[in-house]
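Input for the complex:
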Amino acid sequence: MSNPTTEALKGVAPSQVTAKPIASNHTTRKKGDFKGRKFLLGSLLPLIILGSWQYVSGTGIVDPMLFPAPSSIIKEFYEMVVSGELFRHLEISVLRALLGFLLGGSLGLLFGLAVGMFSKFEELVDPTVQMIRTVPLLAITPLFILWFGFGETSKILLIALGSFFPLYVNTFLGVRNVDSKLFDVARVLEFKRVNQMLRLVLPAAMPNVLLGLRLSISIAWLVLVVAELMGADRGIGYLIQDARSFMRTEVVFIGIILFAAVGKLTDSLVRVLERRLLKWRDSYRG
Amino acid sequence: MSTALLEIVDVSKTFRSAGDAVPVLDRLKLTVNQGEIVSIIGPSGCGKSTLLKIVAGLDIDIEGRVLLEGEPVKKPSQEKGFIFQEHRLFPWLTVERNIAADLSLRKPDVRRKVDELIKLVKLQGFEKAYPKQLSGGMSQRVAIARALLRNPKVLLLDEPFGALDAFTRSHMQEALLDIWRENRTTMLFVTHDIDEAVFLSHRVIVLDARPGRIKTIVPIDLPFPRKRTGAAFQELRTLILRALEHEEPENGSVSYTI
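Predicted:
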């Protein structure tokens, strides 16, 4: 930006704004090529592994009970999709994770905001939260089962508890990182209390909130597996557990791959959200 | 131009740190008239920024009174537009949304006024730009537009062009005078730049340091636009410089006698 001030003062149309798209067209195409090559390079290793796995399975050196061939996993996957069995398990798992995450995550966000905004509330709440945070979630699981049984309540509450903390901690941190000079601006412009929260604190804390969101979602998945492995009659975790006891190793693999795929998908969604919400950031270019 | 808009009556301010009481302002008295541009100039630490914060209502722990149209100032408000040293724009909002801030651009009257102001501060074409894409001068003009949208009775400017290069600064001074010609906005302008004070204001208040008192008031009776190179301009410049420098040897001699 050489000197746009003088340009704008003269009323001349700012050249760099109009010039940008032309310049970036060129770079996008180049970047696309680069991305394609990167994708190819990245998928090289998995392809080699899959290929040799398939080959080795065919020779009969390894036990197909422990290492089923990729082709038989795909075949099993296809059958489960067609029969609708897979979808039934996936549906309940996603529902559990979603409900738990929504409950815990929104509470984490609200508490994080409140604790960040009001130091009195921080003194009241934060020590207790930090204490509970240090307790490993797995240690609390038996207690939750005793209290709420093996039903949906204990699972959803466990997921909620897990996804509460990352959003709480990061939102709190984000609020405390808000430039205090901007609060003076809000006072001079006579922002209402609600607007101070919605138009100053929340957007300023957004980078941290989104980081908390990503961490919360991954914790939600993690706790979901734990909860479903401990006792359930449906869900991907149950599917894995059940398949293990009947030595259906293909299904175990399918369950694991499914977890990975859904986890990656949600993470990508948050990244898209990040790109849209944080495009104002100067440092955000990764 | 003779109705008093802003009255600063016997304002004193003392900073307390570690048990020590440091007087910053001492019974300061000043009246700013409707439509007047008044500059406050003085050595660093003379309390000129503190005075501006007091007038804005950002600092109310004072003795004395500040009256805006006869009403005592108790808290910050949109009536007292404040331009900070740094632009203090919201980095996540575009130029037009920064100007609107908590007001909705969907309201037709807000939309219309924001568009007018963008024209006034000459930022057409940058409505959708983010602060990170703006230069220092442009950002400061957005901040001015943001204050003007709220129809302030007085615009308080705290060394607003201090961080800009000399070239941009003189452009900004002209832009500010354009705004004044258009709106006749009353302004209280804190600066450490004598040229700027003489170029912009109807009166220049020279402050003394520790505690801040008014040393002299220099009326600038030159017609706008003023020529920085003109003889009368230079004369006033020298006058203010002398008033500012006057203190240095005095202070020096005091320290010697002790």
